[in-house]
Amino acid sequence: MTTVSKASSKKSSKSITPPPKTPTPEPSIKTANLDQLKVNQQVLSRITPEIEDGWFYSAQVISIDGEKVRVSYSSKIVDVTMADIVKLSGPDVTLEAEATVIARHPHYQQTYAPGVIVSSSPLQIRFYDGTESIIPKAEVHLVDFERFEDFVDNIIQLESRWVNESVVARDDKTGIYKLGTVKERVANAHEYVIEWRGDNTSTIQHYSCIFGKYSKAKSLQTGDHVIACSDKNTWHYYPGTISKAENNTVDIDFVCNTTIESANPKEAFYITPEYFNLAKEYYLAQLEGSTAFSESSMSSVSD
């Protein structure tokens, strides 16, 4: 892997406030009412055998046998249950504030999560993890409150797997992503205590800024955005953009004005354009603040 330095540059940027906390609902077990489910119907489904994250993905019904449903997902055939299926809401369905839904999450490609409608015009969704975003109506699908609670509880249980895992997490002081270990989950929140590798200091970080074994994966292509290591001497990770993807390697241009060539794509974590823009903005804001503080300190010494 080759590292190539580029000329440095500065951009003004505003700071970004982490998503608010969301209470964890009490566990409950409910069944789905999908009597009118049909073969070849487009649905949203948890892909439990393949992706154990509790989130939903676009799928097509292949066959139905009682509570068992066979679906096609990403060119694969997967067996799920009725409890894993959410029907799509048609264009004529009215979406009102406070309704519970499954909607496309802005931080992940074609991935859907539980949320609540905050505003119907524009259609703003507050997701179970505290993320809020305006989502197109075609990407928002109604579910009843009891199923919503089940879905959220299932995701929370799966998120507990991060504890004791080695991860890459954002250091909020710098906007750089660093190596650490998840020590515990903060009660009633989507945050974790991260112990940094090397100095054993700890911080609390929102799960959306943590990457590792259970992060959502994607086959990387030119133009995709990632969090990846720019220098294995420091093991610092930055937001970047893939400039070339071929022969099972990728070249990445980072926001820190460096490039790596022929990197292993399995060592990079996919992020959406929306997440990339936020991560880049946050990093540049911390960099600008650090530079301003340094210049101020030097001025004081000179005086």
TrEMBL record:
<feature type="compositionally biased region" description="Pro residues">
    <location>
        <begin position="17"/>
        <end position="26"/>
    </location>
</feature>
<feature type="domain" description="DUF4537">
    <location>
        <begin position="40"/>
        <end position="153"/>
    </location>
</feature>
<feature type="domain" description="DUF4537">
    <location>
        <begin position="164"/>
        <end position="281"/>
    </location>
</feature>
<protein>
    <recommendedName>
        <fullName>DUF4537 domain-containing protein</fullName>
    </recommendedName>
</protein>
<feature type="region of interest" description="Disordered">
    <location>
        <begin position="1"/>
        <end position="29"/>
    </location>
</feature>
<dbReference type="Pfam" id="PF15057">
    <property type="entry name" value="DUF4537"/>
</dbReference>
<dbReference type="InterPro" id="IPR032770">
    <property type="entry name" value="DUF4537"/>
</dbReference>
